[in-house]
Amino acid sequence: MTEPAITPLRQRMLEDMAIRRLAPGTQAFYVSAVAKFARHFGRSPDALGYEEVRAYQLHLIQSGLAVGAVNRAITALRFFYKVTMGRRDAPDMIPLARRPEKLRAVLTPEEVARLIDAAPGAKYLAALSVAYGAGLRASEVIALKVADIDSARMLIRIEDGKGQKDRYAKLSPNLLGELRAWWRAARPRIWMFPSRMAAEWRCSWCWAFCCIAGSQTKRTISDCPPHVVAFYPLGDAFHFTSRNEACSDFIIREISAIASS
Q: 0.70 exceeded by the pTM?
């Protein structure tokens, strides 16, 4: 069975995203979001205007979608109208929904340490340690290579990270010891954490605290994309939030059970 031909409009949008080097996942989501918008009205998206966008945004909100989910769909429509359709006023005419600020649960450093210690096996203990200790995202931990560990300069090289940018992260003596212990046990050759699942790590393998990502001022634990829980320093403790409210409730229960055990 042959696949349907790509319309010139979709092809142009794909080219616009490729020119700007948007991530493959972002490209796929944008195309899907615009296609859903067009199906909702039963017309080609280039025949729809800002009034239809407004009606669609109200439809998404009234259907019960979380603010983050609504904004992601609207961001795709902003790109389509501003870039592909050449309407420079799109950001002003297509507003994003305001995200409510909520109080976040608080974990102490000792509780975070117990979460890491609860990792299912030496590989995941080392992976969680490098993610938290160096501020790596889940995808960056999975893509980490043995050659990326620079013990001479005490740095970790991260290739093609957030925003498709390379960067260096600090490597502490304790973290270097954890990585060396894992290397001596498994002798990985190329990938630091080899797995047949590779990028298909899911919460069943890492549970609700699979991987931690972020930077020196932000720590993130993610069970599986797109459910990300962010840790921020808060005095002598950490609080966290989630891009997915349902997942956040689940993770709070899981983390509380582990931290109190």
A: no
